[in-house]
Amino acid sequence: MFKIAKATLRNRNSSVASLFYSIQARSISRQSKVVKIERMVEKEDMHVTRVLFCGPHFPDSYNFTREYLQPYPFIKVDVVHYRDVPEVIKNYHICVAMTMQMDSNVISRASNIKLIMQYGVGLDGVDIDAATKHGIKVARIPSEGTGNAASCSEMAIYLMLGLLKKQNEMQISLRNRLLGEPTGDTLLGKTVFILGYGNIGIELAKRLKPFGSRVIATKRFWPASIVDSDSRLVDEKGSHEDIYTFAGKADIVVVCLRLNKETVIFPLLLHHKLVKQMNMKSCSWQ
After folding, report:
1. Which of 88, 200, 267, 284 is 20 to 30 Å from 213 at the Cα level?
2. How much is the pTM?
3. What residue ranges of the chain are covered by domains with CATH 3.40.50.720?
4. Which of 139, 249, 259 is nearest to 198 (CA)?
5. CA-CA distances (angstroms) from residue 257 to 92, 232, 267, 283?
């Protein structure tokens, strides 16, 4: 990624590349504005490296980037609503996709784009083949070592607890000044099936163990490094051929697969074919 950013910015200060790795390390909460299209390109900006954030969601991402780049006047950041991106993307050199669907039509208009960057791991919204065809590099922030996987796994824990503790019903009870209802459940003793034991799956297993949960997981193949270092985290291992069997043992299923043509069908299969095999007494989905 460093080499990509360095090549993209030519002889500019290469430290700018590091912002894409540190972009999730800080949080700056303040209001941000989406730029107006007619103001985006001015004559004095002809020698400026222009960065496009496909907005308007996740405002901390571009707020932090703008603050980080204040010492670098030759790099400017704009935030454009995703519906307007196809019309203006030709005016930019770097595009941060966010939740924008970067399909072949949008990419074909990106005549000056050198890099499509994702603010996170998922590149399922980017047509990588089309980008490659147009000579555009595609990159992402890796989940390992950046806080990304940890953040996702913590969100999964939060959702599990919310379901088990019946969070919505509990809020209603509190508003009605009722205590002790509904009666929630615990992660203690629950079997959690992690479908796709990658970086997020590993971080999730680390957090489930202190709750007293039994962790079972499937992975396409198990490298020796994972088996040796993280064997204590998983009580039972399997491959994707075992998903039906493992689902039948699980109280909770967490899908941690990268979304692509091969895996897009898994959630649908789980919903329609596996519900009856799961422990229906206490069944949760993430």
Report:
1. 267
2. 0.69
3. 2-140, 148-285
4. 259
5. 32, 22, 10, 20
